[in-house]
Amino acid sequence: MQHVHWLIERNPGVRPERLHHNLLACDPFMHRLVGDERLVDIAEQFLGPDVAMFAAHYIAKPPGDGQAVQWHQDGSYWPLEPMEVTTLWVAGTPSTVENGCMRVLPGTQNKHLLKRRDLIDLDQEKYVLGVGIHPDQIDDSDAVDLELNAGDVSIHNPNIIHGSNANTSDQWRVGLTLRYIPTTTWVNREDHENILVRGKA
Length: 201
Known about the structure:
Layout: H1 2-10, H2 21-24, H3 28-34, H4 37-47, E1 51-61, E2 69-73, E3 80-81, E4 86-91, E5 102-104, E6 120-121, E7 131-132, E8 144-146, E9 153-156, E10 161-164, E11 173-182, E12 186-187, E13 195-198
Antiparallel strand pairs: 1-11, 1-13, 2-10, 3-12, 4-9, 4-11, 5-8, 5-10, 6-7
């Protein structure tokens, strides 16, 4: 939480749910964290020996008015070729139903990625993301709440459909998403620099 509050103070006007990669990429603490051997060991199991981090994002939902995250697939937003990426979601605080923990739709990791034209624009006063999947396309009757303790890690495929409710509790809900890729994956974005965390570029 100290790091999150430090970032909030350094970036007035940025909602704490939107502490994106561009605010973290030059942060020495973040470089040490994303290269932590315990995290990279997990990523290596999915990606092989040459691993880089391509993006990080704190979604820090403040008490009482933490924004919801509409149902979405991470891979729909990412300019990766090929789409070889593993997300490690690190709980900075307990993540509970009450404070808006992540929810996933089991089995949707086997679905194809939706294109931008298939998504709807969202009210960014209410939702963390600007676009998401239309509610009419979702059957959330089998949704699973991923309740985590602080320090726990969940691992995500880029195709799985997931989201989270607003935080209406009196506690912060902080999650840090770390997106690791094999160094053979190309990021189709100008002026983007990956952080090499293991092996060779």
